[in-house]
Amino acid sequence: MMNHIKTLGELKKLGYQSKTIKEELRTNLVEKLKSGQSVFEGIIGFEDTVLPDIERAILSRHNILFLGLRGQAKTRIARQMVDLLDEYIPIIAGSDLNDDPLNPITRFGIDMIAEKGDHAPIDWIHRSERYVEKLATPDVSVADLIGDVDPIKAASLKLPYSDERVIHFGLIPRSHRSIFVINEIPDLQARIQVSLFNILQEGDIQIRGFKMRLPLDIQFVFTANPEDYTNRGSIITPLKDRIESQILTHYPKTIDDAKTITAQEALIAPEQSANIQVPELLRNLLEEISFEARESEFVDEKSGVSARMSISGYENLYSTAERRQLLNGEEKTIARITDFWGVIPAITGKVELVYEGEQEGPYGVALKLLGNAIKSLFLSVFPHPEKIKRGREKDPYGVIKAYFSGANSLELENDTSDLNYAESLNAVPGLDDLLDRYNIAQHERLTYKEFIMHAMSEFDVISKEVLQGKITFNDPLADMLDDMEDEDDDEWNG
Fold first, then answer.
1. How far apart are CA 190 and CA 186, in angstroms?
2. Distance between CA atoms of residues 371 and 204, nearest Å
3. What 8-state DSSP symbol labels residue 121?
């Protein structure tokens, strides 16, 4: 901690040595790697892929382009790079561009050192102030990024327009000795991208006729979505050539990684987490929906399915269970698959549909994704209900099928109490035997019983009717025969 130093002379006596920002990042990364410290906290699933690439780029002192679909933590990683900067660095007090006291680059800084020498005042800035982020949009101008002549400054200082002190510097010069991030770089117009050429490599900028040499010291980070890369624009070749490392990001590759990310990012109120339990099966089911969506024929794979879908869905799952709990006056509750009807709004707003998906409709696609997720997860635990080899083994679903084929049904209301929910599911014979056979723990049984009902309906073993506020499971053939018998009885009695 040297931020008690207030003049250039004191700084020199201390033996302070300036470093470029890329040297700072490299030096501090080396120390973290040597000591075994985590470099990027909370970045899950990139340990063997993306993060080593980033570390190699920093060690190589490269500018970086993150290329990946939405919701792949590109901006989050860029923001965490700030933690690899020195905690404080000195600047010439009053400098617009974070002038290094030992190596000033602006007219203001050079004049200050020439005038006051070792008595030139020093300020210190924290690393959190050395991060600048800009979203690339078509209306971004050269003046925004590089700068322009400021007539108000010229008038207030009584300077002619020929004096470089009338320049108002843009975001990039003001990011001297900082990390500068441009998100969605393909959206930046080609003529604006051209203005970045020399800044990236030579440090030359030109503002309204002012040709000046500004050796800017900046760590550039760019992000781009492959969809935008081709559809809405592209990074022009000379600029891409100056970005030394292009790093591809990806979605979580395992359900466990996805669950960790969702639990980490979801905003769950303390009273929700204290009073509502979300079984592991439902957490797996929620993530499986995202995996199914990324492979679905109804969803545009080029657009991607952000991790935000699972995060929003997780929050909605808690809220749906909480609403039901409040309506029933219960102190605690456990989330159910029926609560996933409250998750559907988080799905419909997070997927881009192709033509076939538009024909199906957002709500219909969401239900299909939920159904496919139930089937995939079910087959990881239980055998396929339609592929039991008859005669060779006892059908584990036989008793359940017989119950529904006997014109029985199961009705689950979305907002029913925990007691009614348990009584309804426990009334279906054969479920406990099935769960015994596959060693399902007692505390998970109600969740699995409902799960089996939904899965058997998805495999068309039984039918499922979704009506206002409730779901009914039955055997359609048994209902049809029962209706026919009632009609025959009516005719006979008539």
1. 9
2. 58
3. B
Query: Backbone dihedral region of 285: left (phi > 0), alpha (psi from -120 to 50 degrees) or beta?
Result: alpha
- Distance CA(411)–CA(462), nearest Å, equals 13
Burial state string for 31-55 with b = 16 or more CB within 10 A and e = fewer than 16 = eeeeeeeebbeebbbbeeebbebbb
Beta-strand ranges (E) seen in 151-202 are 167-169, 178-183
* Of residues 49, 128, 124, 133, the one with CA closest to residue 90: 124
Report the alpha-carbon distance of residue 290 to residue 251 in Å, rounded.
10
DSSP 423-481: HHHHTSTTHHHHHHHTT--GGGHHHHHHHHHHHHHHTTSSEEEEETTEEEEE-HHHHHH
Q: How far apart are CA 117 and CA 9, in angstroms?
A: 8
> Between β-strands 178-183 and 64-67, what pairing exists: parallel, antiparallel or unpaired?
unpaired
Main-chain phi, psi angles of 434, to 5 degrees: -65, -40
Burial class (CB in 10 A: 0-12, 13-18, 19+), 396: middle
For residue 20, count other CB atoms closer than 10 A to its CB.
Answer: 16
pLDDT in single tens digits along all 494 residues of the chain: 566 789 999 999 988 999 999 999 999 999 999 999 999 999 999 999 999 999 999 999 999 999 999 889 999 999 999 999 999 999 999 998 899 999 998 888 999 999 999 999 999 999 999 999 999 888 888 888 887 766 666 667 666 655 666 677 888 888 999 999 999 998 888 888 888 877 777 666 666 556 667 788 999 999 998 765 544 567 888 888 889 999 999 999 999 999 999 999 999 999 999 999 999 999 999 999 999 999 999 999 888 899 999 999 999 999 999 999 999 999 999 999 999 999 999 999 889 999 898 999 999 999 999 999 999 999 999 999 888 766 556 889 999 999 999 889 999 999 999 999 999 999 999 999 999 999 999 999 999 999 999 999 999 999 999 888 899 999 877 555 455 455 545 444 44
Q: Are 172 and 141 in contact (CB under 8 A)?
A: no
In angstroms, the CA 180 to CA 280 distance is 41
Cα separation, 10 vs 210, in Å, equals 35
The CA distance from 333 to 271, in Å, is 12
Q: Which residues contact 456 (CB under 8 A, 6 or more apart)?
A: 385, 397, 400, 462, 473
The DSSP bridge pattern shows strands 333-334 and 276-277 to be parallel
> Cα–Cα distances in Å, from 282 out to 110, 228, 287, 408?
63, 34, 9, 27
Backbone angles phi, psi at 411, to 5 degrees: -115, 125
